[in-house]
Specification:
alpha+beta, STM4215-like, 6-stranded mixed β-sheet, two-stranded antiparallel ribbon, elongated
């Protein structure tokens, strides 16, 4: 079985970029540190599975990771952390409010009907010698019929 997640990745990256919260959004993990102190993001696949098979079509779960970056050395630390948390909350509210990302997905699996629901894990990441404050958002999406079930 082959999956085509390119439309899902494009839809999420485009939606994030259009939101205005982020300076840049890339598909895939960066190989070098993002520049500047503004928020940037990367979107990458976590997992894909078939949730249901119907007559000749599939309903799939595409789980993406949205990694939001901000230079850890931004000052003042307290203000940076509060602004970071507020931005993540705004990004989540915006994504959940869109629900089908303009029709490219069936729905966002907020509560995890087909697996895990939306979650956020905060941490730090050294990328090319620069430390970043990160938030990894697990974004489960329900997508119709992107899998090929025949040869």
């Amino acid at each position: 079985m082959a999956f085509d997640a390119s439309n899902t990745l494009d839809a999420v990256a485009g939606h994030l970029l259009a939101s205005g919260y982020l300076r840049d959004v890339m598909i895939g993990e960066p190989k070098s540190p993002p520049s500047g102190d503004q928020l940037t993001a990367s979107v990458f696949l976590n997992s894909i599975s078939v949730a249901e098979v119907t007559l000749g079509t599939t309903i799939e779960s595409h789980v993406l990771t949205l990694r939001i970056f901000r230079n850890m050395l931004a000052e003042p630390t307290e203000t940076m952390e509060k602004e970071f948390a507020k931005a993540i909350s705004s990004i989540l509210s915006d994504i959940i409010g869109e629900f089908d990302l303009g029709g490219s997905v069936r729905s966002i699996d907020v509560a995890g009907i087909y697996g895990s629901g939306i979650s956020v894990n905060y941490g730090y990441l050294d990328l090319g010698g620069t430390m970043f404050r990160i938030a990894d958002i697990t974004l489960p999406l329900i997508v119709d019929d992107s899998a090929t079930t025949t040869a």
